[in-house]
Amino acid sequence: MRVRPVVWVGRVPWTAVVNSRQRPHDRHDGQAKTATQVELGGGQVLITGFFTVFGVISLVLFLFALFAFVDAAIHREDAYRAADKNTKGFWLIILGIAAVVMKLFSLLSFLPIIGLVAVIVYMVDVRPALRQVSGRNRGNRSLRGRRNGGGSSSDGPYGPYNGRR
């Protein structure tokens, strides 16, 4: 038996063990195999599909971290203090490192998972607080089109409620 050279599929190296008496390049149907087919054999489709899915997930998570980084950079420094969250520099460093880690490391390691947790904390906790402080709440529209809770605190679903019948 001899070991073939390393073949890179996605971000993970694979080696295939081939019997020295076999001639893997010869096929009975007259078609020559590519180098990847020779090295990986019948599991090529599964491995390629697996790493394609992981590649797409890694790209989506990287874009998610990049969006969070850009969103953190857009908000003003005083909005972080007014929302009683960590400083803008802190979140830019954390989210920047998370984006770089998600781009460089495989999703199978633990570092991108830690970066994902940091991005989720920013998106779920910090971003809504910053949007509320800076007045960028676009989602608070009622059925009548009023913005930012423009009605009275005694308004019911069908108009003002004054307690009289």
Which secondary structure elements does this structure contain, and how are they paired or packed?
Layout: E1 2-3, E2 7-9, E3 12-14, E4 17-18, H1 35-40, H2 44-74, H3 77-82, H4 88-104, H5 111-134, E5 155-156, E6 159-160
Antiparallel strand pairs: 1-4, 2-3, 5-6
Helix pairs in contact: 2-4, 2-5, 4-5
Question: How would you portray this structure in words?
Answer:
About 8% of the residues have low confidence. The chain has a two-stranded antiparallel sheet. It has a two-stranded antiparallel sheet with strand order 2-3. Strands 5-6 form a two-stranded antiparallel ribbon. It is elongated. The longest helix is centred in the middle third of the chain and has 31 residues. The protein is built from 5 helices and 6 strands, in the order ββββαααααββ. It has a domain of 77 residues. By secondary structure, it is mainly alpha-helical. Helix 2 packs antiparallel against helix 4, helix 2 packs parallel to helix 5 and helix 4 packs antiparallel against helix 5.
